[in-house]
Structures are given as structure tokens and as C-alpha cells.
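Risk register update: the risk of archive-format incompatibility is retired. Evidence:
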Amino acid sequence: MSYGELWTVLGNWRKEFSSGDFARTFYSPDPNKVLHDMAKKGMIERVSTGRYRVRSASEYVFSKYDAGKAYDFLRKAKLPYALTNVDAVYAWTRGGYNIDRFFGFYPVHVRVAKDDLSEWRKMFAERGWKSVLSGENPRETLFGLFFILYPEEERIRAEKVGSLRVDPLGDTVKFCKDNIYAFEPALEMLDEEYHLKLGAKYRETKTNVLA
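Archived output:
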């Protein structure tokens, strides 16, 4: 029986149980390892010493694909990188503009040094995150949280936005202009936030407003 099948069984057995309950009910050569592995995968949650709670499908999905964990990881990363593409826009607009992403499909776009590529992919894999190269045809359907990597031969140019390293503001503005149909609202936000004098006007002017 796979862990996924066992998770379904546990959900229909008890919502909360002890390690002793589990060992007495399910035959296993190492029940503690099974519980440890399932907790690590996010299928169950350790609520106290020797007691576990079965997570619902929605809890499991949200915990597994929480984009905040990806950004927290990048904040602590020692290797050089820069958020790029829609992630640069997301960062520079202080989270105000995020397009074509939701918890079930959340690519994170990152520039990395080509020499560091294997190390990045190893770190992502250790955390259960998939990664693909920009322009690469994936070998499987990608969903949830994953990384799109943009290898760079030269030094990674980046500016700090909060505690994240991001494409320079000028590069981000150019990206928005090059993709104007999707990012014109972001240009206006950037114009207002950083006084760039771009003259970007996307929002409709309100008229005939009643007092």
C-alpha cells in the first residue's frame, strides 16, 4: 500500500490518533517510520508527543504548494539569484500585481548563474520542488509550486526589494513594456510607486461620481 492509499484509509479511520493506536491497528515493520514519513510529506500533522492528526486534501495541497515557502527559501539563499519575469513585477509592485498564477499553478521565475544550476536544482529537489529551464519542454505536467530557471553566463544583476534579490527596476519596466497587453496595469503601479514619469494610464477614469 502506498502512502497516498494509507492517507485515504487514515482519513476514513480516525481524524486524530496516537502512534500506539496506529501500531495496534496497522501491521508494519516500522510504524514510527511510516508516521514520520507521512508527517514529512504533509499528509498527517504531529499535534503532540505521539499524537497525529490527518490533514484534509485542501490542507495538504495548500501546505505543499505554499508560495510563501519558496520566497522564504530564496531570502535565505547564499547563491546569487534574481527574481525575474512576473516575479520581478510582483516584487517591485509590493505584491500588487500577480498574473496567471494561483496556488494550484505557481511557477517562480529565477535567474541563476549557469555554474550554480546543478546546485539550485539539487536544493529544490531536496525540498520536493520541481524545476525546469526556461524554454525547456517539461517531461511531465507541471502544477502546484515549481521553479523556472534562467541560467546566466555573466554575473547576476540584482537589486534588493525587501529581503529578496530582484531584476533591476529598469529591466522590470522594460519587461512590462515588452509585454504591454498583460502588464500595462503593472506599469501604472510602478509609475505611481517610483515616480518614473512613464505616463502609464490603465485604470479607467471615474466620471459622473455621485457625492
